[in-house]
């Protein structure tokens, strides 16, 4: 089912662009152009994520979020703003917004953040996938197409984390923290070993693990 | 240049010196006069004694020495013929006062009088050398000269010290102003300012206020403009993206869209740079300085850098060690973004960029090295000027390094441009390191 998104933006050119860009990503967008309409929309149910401009006619984005939180709603909110002054950022997050994006932004960044917000507020999904690779977190099975692949516990942990963060650069330390929540000892060298083994096992899966020199890795769809 | 200190010294020392000399003259005179009177009295006594002898018809005679001085006498008749005593005696001027003359090439004091003797009126002269008196006078003058010199030197010292002391508030204000960062237009604190220079300080503060207001106005205007532009630019970007996806087969349209995208990207970058510049110029970072870690700040932007580098197939790498310093996170993020962005922008496709930070000695260093064309040594100071670009072909705003320099300065850091490995550029910014203990909380 398509993600139900409320978009609140008064600039017609940007609103129209956002509408097209988000709909192209299979997101179902409802567009309103002022704060009061946004407040009314958010009072009814069905909105999974709200993307709010701060400078709005009527009541501003901060006030919309304040009213939303005052009603006890946990609907995730992403604020869009032309300002990136510290005060604005801090104020936005203190008011109860979940994320903050400064205009202009790349569509990919906005979509990634919207999906991340939706995921965080949805029950955790067990099925992960990219390219021909699919992971089932409940059974801890990994497949490339129909072919099952054999992974050690640590390799599974690294791959699951990379896949959940697909498209994002993660540091070796982040990987270690993610696969060893109980504080066992794993060196960064060991992570390198797991990654090189994963690369061998993922051949033909349509995914690539890129090395970011001196920092970490990035899992992405491999160019065909 | 006009020096208050020298002016004061001149005006104080001239009169002081003059008064000292006049006083010294008076003291010399006072010390001298009684000695003169006593000496002359001795001569008169000798003359009286001789006169008494002559009136009694006795032969005049006098000891050759008297009180350590050579003594002469002479008796002449009314025609000036020498009747007794020394030959070559100076001219006689009989009278009640002693006078000075030369005898045998020595200065002498002479007393002359007329004496009525049985043989007629005679001129009597008594002379005495002045050696001791001259020595005495020389001694008095010497002591006085030393005294005047000592008093003068002491006064110069005292005047110098008190003038310096009096000028100390000015020196303090100067030091305070010199220590300010660019854009710090806070008024000079009015406490502990002496009454005499308070009007100057007040005037200066009023001027600072006006400048600050103008600067703030310009900055706010710049920031407002930039903010106003962001929404339409964002809209344009999205529309262009959408158009690009629809007309994938039409090469002419694609080319035109690519140009539009390039122009839009350039405007977006320029607007962001203007905002960064406004932020860098905000000044008074001392208020907002907080302990933070450069490595952490770089990490926050890694995603963006990696994406940018990937567009040009640039191998971007990181060498991040903990790098604590006291700073303002927004400005430092601007600094990092600009330097890395520049490196990626000026490095040809397939090149290499390495971003690093570490503590070395008491310095926290941020280093960006690229395999680009490098910056010629002669142009390494030019690149910090606003709107200076080395290469007209690239799409830089020409603001990046000016922003970096402003931010580095506001944080007490300095920038060095060096050669990267293999001919590229290596820019390193050095800050004063924060003790690790302070960086932790």
Characterise this structure.
The complex is a heterodimer of chains A (224) and B (441). Chain A has 224 residues and is α/β, with parallel strands linked by helices. Chain A has helices spanning 12-24, 35-43, 61-70, 86-95, 107-121, 153-164, 172-179, 188-201; strands at 3-8, 27-32, 49-53, 77-81, 99-102, 127-130, 133-136, 141-144, 147-149, 169-171, 207-212, 216-221. Chain A is elongated and about 55 Å long. Chain B has 441 residues and is of the alpha+beta class. In chain B, strands 1, 2, 3, 4, 5 and 6 form a six-stranded antiparallel β-sheet that branches. Chain B has a five-stranded mixed β-sheet with strand order 8-10-11-13-12, covered by helices on one side. In chain B, strands 7-9 form a two-stranded antiparallel ribbon. Chain B is rod-shaped. The interface between A and B is medium-sized, with 28 and 30 residues.
Structural class of chain A: alpha/beta
Rg of chain B, nearest Å: 48 Å
CATH architecture of the largest domain in chain A: 3-Layer(aba) Sandwich
Count of alpha and pi helical runs of chain A = 8
Give the number of DSSP strands of chain B: 13
- What is the CATH level 1 assignment of the largest domain in chain B? Alpha Beta
Largest sheet data of chain A = 5 strands, parallel
Runs of chain B in which pLDDT lies below 50 for 5 or more consecutive residues are: none
CA-to-CA gap between the ends of chain A?
28 Å
**At the first level of CATH, what is the class of the largest domain in chain A?**
Alpha Beta
Helix content of chain A: 40-55%
Total individual domains of chain B = 3
Fold blueprint:
The complex is a heterodimer of chains A (224) and B (441).
Chain A (H helix, E strand, L loop, with lengths): L2 E6 L3 H13 L2 E6 L2 H9 L5 E5 L7 H10 L6 E5 L4 H10 L3 E4 L4 H15 L5 E4 L2 E4 L4 E4 L2 E3 L3 H12 L4 E3 H8 L8 H14 L5 E6 L3 E6 L3
Parallel strand pairs in A: 1-2, 1-3, 3-4, 4-5
Antiparallel strand pairs in A: 6-7, 7-8, 8-9, 10-12, 11-12
Helix pairs in contact in A: 2-3, 6-7, 6-8
Chain B lengths: L3 H52 L9 E2 L2 E8 L5 E4 L13 E5 L2 E12 L2 E10 L1 H48 L19 H49 L4 H30 L4 H4 L1 E4 H18 L3 E6 L3 E4 L1 H18 L5 E9 L2 E8 L29 H11 L3 E6 L5 E8 L3 H5 L1
Parallel strand pairs in B: 8-10
Antiparallel strand pairs in B: 1-2, 2-3, 2-6, 4-5, 5-6, 7-9, 10-11, 11-13, 12-13
